[in-house]
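Objective 1.3, modelling of assemblies. Example input:
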Amino acid sequence: MASLITMDDLTNEEIISILDIAEQMLPIARGEAHTPILAGKVLANLFFEPSTRTRMSFEAAMKRLGGSVLNLGDVSTSSVVKGETLFDTMQMMDGYADIAVIRHPRQGAAKYSSDAVKIPVINAGDGAGHHPTQTLLDLFTIRKCHGTLEGLQVALVGDLRYGRTVHSLSGALARFGSSLTFISPSSLSMPREIVQDLHKSGVDIVETEDFLGSIESLDVIYMTRIQKERFPDEEEYRKVAGIFCLTAKDLVNAKKDMIIMHPLPRVNEIAPDVDSTPHAKYFEQAFYGVVARMALLCRLLEVDVQEAIE
Amino acid sequence: MSEQGMRRVTAIQNGTVIDHIPAGSSLSVLGMLGLLDSRRTPISLVMNVPSKKLGRKDVIKVEDRELTQEELDRLAIIASNASVAIIRDFRVAEKRTVELGSELVNIARCSFSNCITANPREPLPHRLVVRSAEPMELRCAYCGRIQEIGDLVNHLI
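Predicted structure (tokens):
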């Protein structure tokens, strides 16, 4: 059965299909409808590093559809502290669950896990690698707000070097014909693997440190947190911490339908006065994580949603 | 092997001749073949000799040992154009080429310190995917990092 490790595991048609199913899941996610189409299925939630939204939205998605969830819990109370390898931990999952979600501080951990087991594995963030389920909910949000994924002007701002959400999102947006502006301090610019692949796909990319220079032309501003925990050196973190902060007055020249997104948590890169503007979509975006993950779980567990709902 | 290369080292009776190694890479090639620490295998090395194909090249002769195709394919990382002759009783018995497949398995480790494979106790094979042969681009199959080709000799398995 297929896994989702990077967005390259999905075709554009499959992405659109998942977003369409996610749309149908909205009443179920809101608790307005009860459709236990994943009853009897078990999800293993394996979070080896902190998570609030991703872990809980996977749990909500599974439970709203009638499934059950096993949580690894605090890593310090599992066999990981006794020196168990990821390979061995994953072998247990083959016996305990029908599908596994993994977040791990080491890059490549999700792909490694999927090679170690028979059940589908979903990458919920591997170090500074990828975070494809965040991309699914990001795309859902963009399509919901703009009615399309095609031909948009999108700025990705902040920690592009260590930010796994933007690594996954940039490639997906490029595949739908978006023009991308990467705004970051040079020390946090997009990794060369990502930029090289984007150039090969023929997408227009601008890399700049100028935060607000192009705001009037943008359809989406995607802010990210400078991730203190990923810096090998705290001094390097201090040099760039707080470098970008979006405030309500910065939005005067923005298009009326320009949206501001953020994978959350935020620290100080979006001022609280932005929250009440019509541009702010980050809390709505976080809710869409539930429906995007519901749709993905159904797909990877090979449940025919149309048949089950009708 | 070119005549100039031949003149510098005497012919071997049995063994393997690896020709058209990029100049200066022969020690790395010996390292990749696990021959640097060998105290029993007679090895002749010719470095930086003129070559029509490469400008300058290195040549290695390994006596009394026929290298397998699997061993030779390890050289693809640094000597993808190398040509190989298996010598039996002073004659070329077989000609082989180094073949760069689509993936290098358990030849070198990913050089990224935060890759999941950096834990030496993790048992799955080390896999480097060949994204491009010319110029050579290798990426770790797990973490996706591009590998510095020159640095790979420091991460050989």
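Chain B is about 10% helix and 35% strand.
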